[in-house]
Amino acid sequence: MERSEQIAAKRGKESVVRFKASQIFEHSLIMVAFTVLVITGLPQRFPDNSWSQSLIQNLGGIYTTRLIHRGFGFVLVFGAVYHIGFILSHVFRRKRPLSMMLTFRDFRDAIVTLRYDLGLIDQQPQLGHYDFRQKFEYWGMVFGCTVMILSGLILMYPIVVTRLLPGQLIPAAKAMHGYEGLLALLIILIWHLYGAHFGPEKFPFDSSIFTGRISRERMQREHSLEYQEMLNAEASTTVPQETQDQGGVETREEAEGKS
Ligand code: HEM
Q1: pLDDT higher than 70, residue 140
Q2: How far is the CA of 4 from the centre of ligand 1 (A)?
Q3: Which CATH fold topology does 14-101+128-222 show?
Q4: Cβ-defined contacts of 190-195 (< 8 Å, 24+)
Q5: Atom of ligand 1 nearest to the CA of 144
Q6: Atom of ligand 1 nearest to the CA of 44
């Protein structure tokens, strides 16, 4: 192997940051809350099944099951509030753009990917930090959590709600909560787990959301647009040869400061 190829292969294995500590925390919080809400919610949705009855019994009875469900409902509410705080700080304090906003390009990338998967073209689209699949799933989750939190709160405080709004809202919220809960579980099992862990390129387990890092080689393969931007940024902060020869290391800020 040529020396340049060896260097490229070595660099490919180096890792880069993909998720910050606050994002790892948020994902873990939602993952734990969602799992407990499904385990304590589903047996209430299908109370006549034998597995529901034995699960409720093992959880300490229906009273405890409902108590755990409501408690973790508030953990999910906390996760939602934390996420809104994160977005506000991202936009107003750090003046960064909203990376999950859907753009025309995402729909075009989805169509190009579909054509690539069908073998009609041989070039995949260049994708940024979050691709169209991740953005679609994110917005599905925002919608799903909003429905679950609002309908859950209505079921939890029916007397307060019916003082202000019509009583038909209670059975409507119950139906919505039950069906959306089931839909959320199916989406996580089929879409999310396949996309994040069981797909051919990720199987058996993608640890990036727990470690916060991915290899440069993976970034180049899956987020080529972001990779290109990173290379450009690295190039603009890398020391020009003449500067190195003079023993100095020039950062982009220093270079811009001189001009
Ligand atoms: C994605 C998360 C959630 C899932 C998967 C889920 C699932 C479920 C399911 C399947 C039921 C049974 C519905 C039925 O009997 O038809 C239920 C009941 C209920 N859920 Fe949720 N839920 C979630 C989030 C929440 C949240 C955020 C709250 C409150 C803030 C909440 C509060 C309730 C309440 C009050 C009930 C009625 C049973 C009771 O009185 O404890 N849920 N949930």
Answers
A1: yes
A2: 57
A3: Fumarate Reductase Cytochrome B subunit (1.20.950)
A4: 191/137, 192/137, 195/133, 195/134, 195/137
A5: 1
A6: 12
